[in-house]
Amino acid sequence: LIRPAGVGVAPLYLIRRDRRLLERLWHQTWPTFAERFTNSLIYLLFMRLVAGLGTTTLAAHNITMQVESLAFMLAWAISAATTTLVGQAIGARLEHIAEITVHRTLMLATLLMGTLAAVFVIFGPQIVMLFGATEAVIDKAALVIRIAAAELVFMAWTFILIGAMRGAGDARSPLLVNFTSTMLFRLGGVYLLAYVWGWGLPGVWTATAVDWAVRSVGLALCFRRGRWKGLHEKEKLRFAAEPMD
Fold this sequence. Notes:
Strand content: under 5%
Order of helices and strands: HHHHHHHHH
Oligomer: single chain
Structural class: mainly alpha
């Protein structure tokens, strides 16, 4: 272990309580924790609404989710890369590089996810047939997987913009946008379209597509506003100004 300057024993330095560091970690952690917690809670309520439409509908929904998970993995991978690149650019005080990175990853995601969306539309029925479910389940899944294709690009944009803002230190904007959109458009939209208007499972997936679209637009507006550009410097000044323990 390398002993930092002014520290007697390196292992003690590793376990030493640093109030400022803990505060800094908590400042970045609690919005993400709150976002994940609320997303999990909303997802439980969402699945309760889907389950209320019947077992055949629930089975078709789960098959479609399994197929769409392939797109999730690609979107998350691009998002993780964006977080790293934006964090490096912000640390080097090159905010314009961060913006260029986000614009290029959005273009890349649009191309890749657009291609996947085309595959879902063209070969969706053949893909869901691989699960070997009943004919009724396959028929429902074949329909909604084409609706799911409409949300793939918006989903990737959402992941990328969330990753970019987290890399820049802004974890609160994603929390606000995600909570508002999922409550209004996912839960509210599913209840309206699937239950009130009687669309069933197509209504569920239409509502989720609208939710992803609204989230991506809301996050794009937050990113364009540029609040994230000054957060790193403000945090450095605050961190350096506080006295040591």
